[in-house]
Amino acid sequence: MKKQSKDQMLEFAEKLGVPVFEQIANLTVLQFNYVRIIDLLPEMLIMMRSLVAKEAFSFRREPITVIKNGLLFSFQNVFNDGQENVADLPGNLQQERSHVRITPLHMTSEVHFAKQSHIKQISIIIEMTYLSRFLGKDQPQFSYLFDADSTFWIEEFMSPEIASIVDQMLNNSHNVSFPDLFYSMKALELLYFLFNNLSRRESVSHQQVTRDEISKVYEVRNAMAASLDCALPISELVKISGMNELKLRKVFTQVFGKGLYTYFQYMRMEEAARLLREERLSVSETGYRLGFSNLSYFGRLFEEHKGMKPKKWSSQTP
């Protein structure tokens, strides 16, 4: 696929609230491997990009005003861009696990790139009324996304269906006859599977959240992720968050779609799946590393999450 020019990329980045012309001197620390922009405004804009931050880099993203009332769907680290083993890139590139984030366009945020981080992302900005027409009678169950004045931050796990659509967008489109139609349909497919996942989130009364509260629940999530072999006591999580227990549970569930313990177990099973396939650990090694003394219980929990026993999972090609 043809890449957009650097000037085009900078122009569209400004539309996405990135102050590139204020940060032009600092942009030299970013190595852009791939950028493609599909301008379907005023209803939708799609940006696909891969970049490496050679040094730590931060900026404040301002509200996106190219669409008055809209949503930003950011699919993070959802594809392999072929750059993982390129000779002139450092061998210890860091990248977050795959996930999707949803925010309103009017929300400001602090964006941080760690040194030698590899960012692979598909961003979709879409006008609320346009999106609601596709949801039709099902839109009310997602009303928390369509309050034009609401401030929220939603993170959702990746799914195999989303990964498949992303692969089609990146790798099967070089001979597409009608690219705007192709990408708009694929973007809507991504959103279809994402909303399917959102419909299964734990029920919670959505409330306004502050940037500080969002930051704190991420600190809690990161602390949990760093201790997958032993669940941290709720008292320690409350201390990290600076909230009372009830507030922490509500905000955490609102952002991540699962309660604290359910989310912890989900992370353990995702890590178990990775250890079995990528690290090629045995079932017992994986279970013990993640703090399971009862391997039968580990096997049942894994099968409940992944739909198959750990041994079968490890023997299959991803």
Properties at a glance:
318 residues; alpha+beta; Jelly Rolls; Arc Repressor Mutant, subunit A; 2 domains; 6-stranded antiparallel sheet; two-stranded antiparallel ribbon; 40% helix
Structure, described:
This protein is an alpha+beta fold. The chain folds into two domains: 193 residues, Jelly Rolls (Sandwich); 105 residues, Homeodomain-like (Arc Repressor Mutant, subunit A). It has eleven helices and eight strands. Strand 1 and strand 2 form a beta hairpin. The longest helix has 20 residues. The mean pLDDT is 88. Pfam families: HTH_18 (PF12833). One of its GO terms (molecular function) is DNA-binding transcription factor activity. Keywords: DNA-binding, Transcription, Transcription regulation. This is AraC family transcriptional regulator.
Shape type = globular
Question: For the terminal residues, how far apart are their CA atoms?
Answer: 26 Å
CATH class label of the largest domain: Mainly Beta
Secondary-structure content class = alpha+beta
Question: What would you call the quaternary organization?
Answer: single chain
Please state the second-level CATH architecture of the largest domain: Sandwich
Given as residue ranges, the uncertain stretches (5+ residues, pLDDT < 50) are: none
Protein name: AraC family transcriptional regulator
InterPro entries: Homeodomain-like_sf (IPR009057), HTH_AraC (IPR018060), HTH_AraC-typ_CS (IPR018062), PchR_regulatory_protein (IPR053142)
GO molecular function: DNA-binding transcription factor activity; sequence-specific DNA binding
Domain HTH araC/xylS-type: 218-316
